[in-house]
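REQUEST FORM: STRUCTURE PREDICTION
Request ID: SP-0412
Submitted by: Lab K.M.
Chain count: 1
Length (residues): 501
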Amino acid sequence: MTIRTSGILMHISCLPGGYGIGDLGPSAYGFADFLSASGQHVWQMLPLNPVDRQSGGSPYSCSSAFAGNPLLISPYFLIRTGLLSKDETIFQQPFSDDRVDYPAVAEHRRTLLSLACERLEQQGKSPGGFAHFCTRQKAWLDDFAAYMAIKEHFHMQSWSQWPQPLRDRHPDALAEMQGKLAKQIRQHKFVQFVFFLQWQALKDYCNTRSIRLYGDIPIYLPFDSADVWSCPQQYKLDENRSPTMVSGVPPDYFSTTGQLWGHPVYDWQFLQQNGYNWWLKRFAHNFEMFDVVRIDHFRGLVAYWEVAASAQTAVDGEWVQAPGDDFFTRLTMRFGRLPVIAEDLGTITPDVRECMRKFQLPGMRVLQFAFGDDFPDSSFLPHHHVPDCIVYTGTHDNNTIRGWFEQEIDNQTRVNLQRYLGTHLSAENIHHHMIRLAMMSVADTVIIPLQDILGLGADARLNQPAGAKNNWQWRLAKGSLTKQHAGWLKKTTAAYGRCRA
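STATUS: Completed
RESULT:
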């Protein structure tokens, strides 16, 4: 018998705390306690990889598919281990409690982590487990640490602007630079060691409380990333290692001109001939970190929208087939049934559905999409749900439920919503009704963004796709989660058989 369960979508960066951004410190443990107290068994978060400086903090624009984000390392635990003093962690200007200032946070973390590394060097000894970590993660760690050290040496220029021998990874030039920057490379490895040490401790804490961690894999990586530099053959690049084709999606719900993401697209012929080696390592790494992973833009593993690198919008692209069946066959041979959620929103064709069916990959149902022009036939409506899917009131790309109700829905959608729920709706109660609607679904799993549990408005929206500014900055105010919230959520969850009261 399948167990009905539910949980909360809450990214680490959104947690409260005194260091400008949510991190793997006490607030993360406090949130795990809230999940337990409210009867929730899933904590879903966004990618935890390092964020690209030009992305405005987007966790979907990562400089590595494997490394952890240093901004999420907890200074509190560095104080506890004696590598920093409390006074050293105080920033010159007080951080905002409700928004993330990424440049300021990055400067602060860089200073603290550099100081911790220097202190470790002065002690003349390696922390316990560091050598084992470096050996175990060597497949990605050596390239990532070298990439970061060389990038800093060249004042954060893209690898495509480095001297050609380094750009093209000529062995002699690379070995010479690695020798010159040995100390810096070691420091980057140490930072990753600290991240994964703190991450594993939090994961263990959650798992012992029957909380499963759901991660997120961005399908693409930016051109200026360790992975593209270290293995350019698996991307569509020209002889000068510049992208020829880039990623995006055609016009959709979020944009009339589509979304031009601009990441280099994969050379699937090379990947297939290579036995999907990089992807196998990527999944193994994520399955070790998380109990379940969501593949963002899943359909791109079956067929993807590619656009010429010179294009200004995503309109003039085309769909290109990927070897999805062969790819997922290889994955299941390696891992068995995959603990994967397929993000199947947007333009989904029969071949994508067939891939999900064949490999038993559950998709997503978002209630905000249920009450539009295709009402009452929408697959997002609860009476069309199936057990093997995950129901959301909204995702990180949606407005909050209250913001959606107050600002986005038209009169007909409001009428459809009223007819379906059969009760008086207001800005003050819409989040409660939509959460109940999700919980009563036959779907095995329900995930609610934390903003919807608190009934927050549009100012708590995390991301607005298609180029909007000030994304990824929202943070939860300290003390916002109360016993009353936990009690209401636990009773509601229990009422629909997703936990015991």
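NOTES: The chain has one domain: 5-495.
Reviewed by: T.R.
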